[in-house]
């Protein structure tokens, strides 16, 4: 593993629509992020990952890209991105963007041209159009379902006014899947990557990086499963097909022209050997390993997640990555049981994550201990809600805007009380301003932890050695000397010898309480 800027970096995921609204339209934007860079610098972040800001009808909050080489006016246009990149670089913060190569928006000129063209045309060959099955082609070409619910195929009306072919969309019908067997698709991605890299972007988080290649013949699914983000899907024909690795090699060859830029894949693949393929020396630099995020608050589960993540990276000499939250999953305090216990566990898990070797990803609001928000039906915006016929509420609960200051919603997020998702009044105690003023707050805890991780040499080690610990506990030592202890059990635990650097909660009689972690040197 060679040292690169990302090999021990702390990436901060900014969900732009929910971070800070600078123009009062109720939706966060890029000038909003720029306005809060000092906050991010004080938190100690090395890099920002921006969820998609390219031109988009926003059917899936920007994961439906209509022009990959421009920034949507909703986020302030391309000049706002330039302002953000310049200001971030002055603070030595890198800026990485989301890249969506698996699909485009249905509003993309390519898809519009495909709709206007006839079956078999070059225009249709950029996507995955097929004739239907059954009499007159009334049934979809295969039994695949969309991740967001409903079928993964939508039928189009041909120029003669009759129902015609079907096109594939693993997500929303407004996100048609591209045909990666068509060389034009990579040629266009190459243009997009060079466009942003030349403009000073420091890398990309590659959306659905296990999804671009489709299996020959598009065979039926044996097990019908819509939701895959948190499920084991190693047998799912829609994802992780071998052809995807040649695509990553092509992408990597391009990145090699920009040796300071990082490619990070969203890889929902769990088998260690299968996962490791994505981060071979000639593929992605980093891949999100979601095992820690999926682990229950249970010592055996957590240790297993850490061991497997390390093992997968080790197989190919890659940098391990760690993440507990993002815009697609429930926030940790909620996942770990809610209330004060959920929050205590979230802090403890953050401390475990920040001790591990490799790159870490923190999702905006994680540093404030924000929980999920129970939103009323009419507030829901995620396409999952509609596509699932109101059976799945979707991901809005973890996308609510950041509370910055003040005593009432929208807590300084916007001048406009009508924010794209409502902030709950009970977040009055969780605002950034209140937490900065409180040395015991979750934010103060994160700041201290990140500072220690960055400044102390004891955090630099790459090897993890497991130490004995009582049942329900977990303890490991980095080769550089840091000891991390977690109490996921029910009884207070004695701490090992050493100087206590930080604990995620108060000690009781010198012992580590349940739901608490500590660092010692
Ligand atoms: C990824 C994104 C998710 C998006 C989907 C489709 O899983 O993280 O938010 O809906 O891809 O682009």
UniProtKB/TrEMBL annotation:
Listed GO biological process terms: oligosaccharide catabolic process
Keywords, in A-Z order: Glycoprotein, Isomerase
GO function terms (MF aspect): alpha-amylase activity; isomerase activity
Keyword Glycoprotein listed: yes
Glycosyl hydrolase family 13 catalytic domain segment(s): 13-399
Sequence intervals crossing the membrane: none
Protein's name in the database: Alpha-glucosidase
Biological classification of the source: Bacteria, Bacillati, Actinomycetota, Actinomycetes, Mycobacteriales
